[in-house]
């Protein structure tokens, strides 16, 4: 029995509220159970120096956790003067994941920065950030299309992410913290709506996992991604 009482292949309750930021070109608040992430997308009419005069656009991301997003207060990274390795790794993952579904010539020579701020954490914050970050990106692109700034849609597919793991000897979908903290295997799957794999992160904790278990996690992930993409489509309908 999972701590939440969910079936092994069940997501936590997912809600996506759009238009939560007055100033951002695209924004949403995504809730996956008790993990809540504010995602905003900001458009800049410039690109990093290595892309100047290339005609290519760029999508990047920043990620952070508020001090009381967890059970005890954590120090703001800004006050420490540097980002942790975990933060850098996650925001690079978010950026890579979103760029995988962007036609950069169609975006033109401009940058969209997706900011993912974790308001409350209960496991799966990077996955919620990717899923919600795509919504914010979609809405920012819609803003550009409506204004006539770009002529064709640069987004080629929905992108979503979900965690899976081996908990209590069973493959389970969408781990919350109670499961993630003791899981024998933890994995994150980033996929497009048609099942294309963008990134898979998986590791064993103290014991190896089998090919059959990996296949079971993949099956759970495909089901979860399909449900998350359906939630994305409902949110932007």
TrEMBL record:
InterPro entries: ExoRNase_PH_dom1, ExoRNase_PH_dom2, ExoRNase_PH_dom2_sf, PNPase/RNase_PH_dom_sf, Ribosomal_Su5_D2-typ_SF, RNase_PH, RNase_PH_bac-type, RNase_PH_CS. SUPFAM superfamilies: Ribonuclease PH domain 2-like, Ribosomal protein S5 domain 2-like. It catalyses: tRNA(n+1) + phosphate = tRNA(n) + a ribonucleoside 5'-diphosphate. Keywords: Nucleotidyltransferase, RNA-binding, rRNA processing, Transferase, tRNA processing, tRNA-binding. One of its GO terms (biological process) is rRNA 3'-end processing. Phosphate binds at residues 86, 124-126. The keyword Translocase does not apply. Residues 11-140, 159-223 form the Exoribonuclease phosphorolytic domain. PROSITE patterns: RIBONUCLEASE_PH. GO terms for molecular function: 3'-5'-RNA exonuclease activity; tRNA binding; tRNA nucleotidyltransferase activity. PANTHER family: EXOSOME COMPLEX COMPONENT, EXOSOME COMPLEX COMPONENT RRP41. Belongs to the RNase PH family. Phosphorolytic 3'-5' exoribonuclease that plays an important role in tRNA 3'-end maturation. Removes nucleotide residues following the 3'-CCA terminus of tRNAs; can also add nucleotides to the ends of RNA molecules by using nucleoside diphosphates as substrates, but this may not be physiologically important. Probably plays a role in initiation of 16S rRNA degradation (leading to ribosome degradation) during starvation. Homohexameric ring arranged as a trimer of dimers. This is Ribonuclease PH.
């Amino acid at each position: 029995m999972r701590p939440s009482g969910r079936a092994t292949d069940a997501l936590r309750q997912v809600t996506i509220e759009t238009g939560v930021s007055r100033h951002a070109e695209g924004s949403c608040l995504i809730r996956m159970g008790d993990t809540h992430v504010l995602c905003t997308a900001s458009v800049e009419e410039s690109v990093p120096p290595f892309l100047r005069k290339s005609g290519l656009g760029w999508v990047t991301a920043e990620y952070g956790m508020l001090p009381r997003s967890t059970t005890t207060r954590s120090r703001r990274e800004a006050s420490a003067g540097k980002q942790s390795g975990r933060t850098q790794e996650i925001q690079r993952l978010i950026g890579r994941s979103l760029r995988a579904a962007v036609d950069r010539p169609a975006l033109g020579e401009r940058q969209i920065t997706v900011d993912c701020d974790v308001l409350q954490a209960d496991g799966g914050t990077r996955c919620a950030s990717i899923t919600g970050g795509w919504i914010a990106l979609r809405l920012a692109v819609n803003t550009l299309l409506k204004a006539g700034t770009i002529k064709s849609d640069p987004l080629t597919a929905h992108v979503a992410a979900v965690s899976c793991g081996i908990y209590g000897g069973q493959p389970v979908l969408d781990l919350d913290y109670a499961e993630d903290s003791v899981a024998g295997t933890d994995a994150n799957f980033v996929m497009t709506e048609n099942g294309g794999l963008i990134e898979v992160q998986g590791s064993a904790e103290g014991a190896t996992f089998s090919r059959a278990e990996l296949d079971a996690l993949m099956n759970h992930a495909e089901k979860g991604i399909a449900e998350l993409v359906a939630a994305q489509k409902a949110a932007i309908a």
